[in-house]
Design goal:
There is one protein chain. This protein is of the alpha/beta class and 207 residues long. It has one domain: 3-Layer(aba) Sandwich (Glycerol-3-phosphate (1)-acyltransferase), CATH 3.40.1130. Helices cover 38% and strands 20% of the residues. It contains six helices and seven strands; from the N terminus they run αββαβαβαβαββα. It has a seven-stranded mixed β-sheet, sandwiched between helices. α3 links the parallel β3 and β4. α1 crosses α2 and α4 crosses α5. The longest helix has 20 residues.
């Protein structure tokens, strides 16, 4: 598997650069805050519709959660976008055995309270206008590989322009108080409930 690399200089530069390009390319980036258990790792499950998605949540972690950021990406993005590995990206090498190793690695990351792991459960990029977010089975493999002492955060991000030349981005967060027993269907259902509520809030915005 492809693991994250450490280089403090590269990390600091791109941490600054991500904040810079969000402020440069968007008229606003708005997000809520949620309460979490500080002595527990964070798993963020988010919709995936754009190149920006991981950067939005990297920014939110920098401002709100302040954990060590990790994100599961595909092998192509890991190898093509060279700096991602220095921002906590990890990936499987597209082999079935390696996929399992990668998901188990993510689960072990979640055993460290200092960590945050971002996962896009859809597995691929989809339109921002979907009515339902699909979940790949690997999400549960990752959770089951951990000790299950996790802050599970749902994130739903949407983009609108309104009357401005540049778009505004909105990320809605929810801390899901997970049951002792978690199934893929339960997780998917809870996430989509949050997603539906976020769509309603987004549709109520007027400028």
């Amino acid at each position: 598997m492809y693991q994250p690399r450490k280089n403090n200089l590269i990390f600091r530069f791109f941490s600054w650069y991500i904040q810079f390009i969000i402020k440069k390319d968007f008229s606003a980036f708005k997000y809520g805050e949620v309460g979490i258990k500080q002595d527990t790792a964070i798993l963020i499950l988010a919709n995936h519709f754009s190149w920006w998605d991981g950067f939005f949540l990297f920014y939110i972690n920098k401002k709100v959660f302040k954990k060590q950021f990790h994100v599961l990406v595909n092998a192509e993005n890991y190898t093509k976008v060279g700096f991602l590995k220095y921002l906590g990206a990890f990936a499987a090498e597209n082999k079935s055995k390696d996929v399992l190793e990668t998901l188990n690695y993510a689960g072990k990351l979640l055993d460290n309270p200092a960590n945050l792991v971002l996962v896009f459960p859809q597995g691929k990029l989809y339109s921002n206008h979907l009515k339902n977010i699909s979940f790949e089975k690997g999400v549960m493999q990752m959770i089951n590989a951990s000790q299950k002492k996790i802050n599970i955060i749902f994130a739903a991000t949407f983009i609108d322009y309104f009357a401005k030349r540049k778009p505004s981005a909105y990320t809605y967060l929810q801390h899901w108080e997970n049951e002792e027993y978690v199934s893929l269907q339960l997780l998917k259902s809870a996430y989509n409930k949050h997603y539906d509520q976020s769509v309603i809030k987004q549709n109520q915005l007027i400028e």
